[in-house]
Amino acid sequence: MKGPATMTLLLLSLALCWSSGEYNEFFLEFLQTLLAGALEDLYEGPLASYNINPDCKAAMSELKSCIDNLAPMHKAELVKLLRALVPSFLASKAAALLFILAGTQKEGVNGARPGSASPHLSPP
After folding, report:
1. Which residues pair with 51 in a beta bridge?
2. Where residue 18 falls among pLDDT bands split at 50, 70, 90?
3. Average pLDDT over residues 69-87
4. I need a labelling partner for 72 at 20 to 30 A (CA). Which of 7, 63, 109, 124 fits?
5. Is 97 exposed, middle or buried (0-12, 13-18, 19+ CB in 10 A)?
6. Strand partners of residue 121
7. Which residue would you say has higher pLDDT here, 76 or 87?
8. Where does the record locate the signal sequence feature (predicted)?
9. How far apart are CA 26 and CA 48, in angstroms?
10. Which helix (H) or strand (E) holds 52?
11. Alpha-carbon span 64 to 36, nearest angstrom
12. At residue 121, what are phi and psi to the nearest 5 degrees?
């Protein structure tokens, strides 16, 4: 799976997982950095408290490459998808992500980081 399909799958997965308040800030910062920042910013920012395995780093690198090559019209379609899936995107700090997807620069958001581990990343 390549290009916009990969990005859509990732955003859909994250949007569906975006439920409790403590994770909202983490996912917003993660998505915002993934969409508008450098790959290193992910590891120094939202993922800083985790040890990311090499396979996950390779996948993140490929995903970031796909995101960086998205056409503006595809980003606009992702905005529409996110608006349909997560109406709360239009409220509070989540609107910052929509501005970034639409091409407007916005400052990063510092948020809470989840304390749970997964097979792909684990706390140090």
Report:
1. 122
2. low
3. 70
4. 109
5. buried
6. 52
7. 76
8. 1-19
9. 11
10. strand 51-52
11. 10
12. -145, 145
Stated length of the chain: 124
Q: How far apart are CA 75 and CA 100, in angstroms?
A: 9
What mean pLDDT do residues 57-64 have? 89
Contacting residues for 39 by C-beta, under 8 A, at least 6 apart: 60, 61, 64
Q: What is the DSSP letter of 93?
A: G
Cα separation, 7 vs 63, in Å, equals: 7
Asked if 6 contacts 66 with a C-beta cutoff of 8 angstroms, the reply is yes
Report the pLDDT averaged over residues 76-100: 59
Whole-model pTM: value is: 0.51
In sequence order, the 6+-apart residues with CB closer than 8 A to the CB of 26 are 46, 111, 112, 113, 114
- Which residue, chain included where needed, has tokens 């490459």? 65
Q: What is the pLDDT of residue 66?
A: 85
Give the span between the Cα atoms of 122 and 124, in whole angstroms.
Answer: 6
* 103 in Cβ contact with 75 (< 8 Å): yes
Q: Which two tokens stand for residue 70?
A: 């998205």
Model confidence band, residue 41 (pLDDT cutoffs 50, 70, 90): very high
